[in-house]
Amino acid sequence: MTRLPDHLTPEIWLTQMLSSAEAQKGGVVKRQIRDVERLVGRDAFVAAVEERGFQAVRNGRHYVVFCNDQPIRRVR
C-alpha cells in the first residue's frame, strides 16, 4: 500500500490538490477514489471541497471536483 512521503501530510496533499493551477482557474481536478480514501479519507476530502465552495461527484473510480460554484448539468 502506497502512503504519503514523510514530508507530506494529508492536509498538505488536499491543499495542493485544491489550490492547483487548474483549481485556481475554476477548472476541474480528478483523483482516484482509492487514493483519496487511503491518503486523506472521504470525510476530510468532502469537508475540504465544501470549505472552498467547490462541488464534487463520484463516477466510476474517480472523484471529480468542479472548482467553482457553477451549476452542474448532466448532458446525457
TL;DR of this structure?
This protein has 76 residues and is an alpha+beta fold. The chain contains four helices and three strands.
What does the model show?
- The chain is α+β, with helices and mostly antiparallel strands.
- The protein has four helices and three strands.
- A three-stranded antiparallel sheet has the order 1-3-2.
Please tag this protein with its features.
single chain, 76 residues, alpha+beta
End-to-end CA span: 36 Å
Q: Report the helical percentage.
A: 25-40%
Radius of gyration: 13 Å
Numbering strands along the chain, what is their spatial order in the largest sheet? Answer: 1-3-2
Note poorly predicted spans: none
**Roughly what is the average pLDDT, rounded to an integer?**
93
Helix and strand composition category: alpha+beta
Instruction: Give a short account of the largest sheet.
Output: 3 strands, antiparallel
Overall geometry comes to globular
